[in-house]
Amino acid sequence: MTRLITWPDSGPQTVLRKTSEPAEIAAALAPLRVRYEQWPVRHEVPVDGDSDTVIAAYRSEIEKLTEEEGFVTVDVVSLHPGTDPDWPARARAAREKFLDEHTHDDDDEVRFFVAGAGIFYLHLAGEVHAVYCEKGDLLGVPKGTPHWFDMGARPSFTAIRFFHEEDGWIGNFTDSGISRRFPDFDEFRAGFAEEREG
Fold this sequence. Notes:
This protein has 198 residues and is α+β, with helices and mostly antiparallel strands. The chain has one domain (3-197): Jelly Rolls. It has helices at 22-29, 51-57, 59-69, 87-96, 185-197, and strands at 3-8, 17-19, 35-38, 73-79, 102-103, 109-124, 127-134, 137-141, 147-150, 157-163, 172-173. The strands form two sheets. Strands 1, 2, 3, 4, 6, 7, 8, 9 and 10 form a nine-stranded antiparallel beta sheet that branches. It is globular and about 45 Å long.
């Protein structure tokens, strides 16, 4: 289940907002110029489907968004546990690339989750907004927005990425250390599970 939690940027001791309602999430993020929407989930797409299969399944949504936003590159990124003995090291390296706060000068960061989950943390106007995204969720983070992303210690997701620039993902790291003060993906999800059981 998608979730938004907002804290002051001083730390997670105080919760300013918490919701799992898609309309409330979209309304809370819209003033920040962050795009949030849900697309239909294509259950016939395998979790580890190749790029051509994923893009074909979501072609109409991709074409509509590309036309609206002028994207020039669309690709698919997929990371799932496997039997490869190098998997733990590869997963750790992939995760660490995005864990520190950064911005993008020339492009928005737009992702649609085909499978699995990840959390975008947005640091704006003295607050941190953690958006737990899962299959069916699209999030668009405007260029210049300080943020970080966590996929957990055992990443498992497939996402469609949209770019205005052919160079793709280029991050400018702030060296703020703020990401270390907030619950990571695994802590966030464990707390979420406890709430549902309680």
